[in-house]
Design brief:
Layout: E1 17-22, E2 27-32, E3 42-44, H1 46-50, E4 59-62
Parallel strand pairs: 2-4
Antiparallel strand pairs: 1-2, 1-3
Length: 70
Amino acid sequence: MLSRPCSRVACPRDAVSTLTYVYADSMAVLGPLSLSHEPHSYDLCAIHAERLSAPQGWQIVRHEVFGEIK
């Protein structure tokens, strides 16, 4: 898999996480980098993923993977 850039403007780093929004539930979901680019999601580098905030009244759900999948 080729690396993908961070979706934030002018960020030169490679993406490590994918952000999607569930508007009906006022939720932002941040998980591991998806296998392919999705048109309604945002790929973020580690720095921007860590600094992620959501609008007031929204919740952020962070899915993390520990260890390597074999």
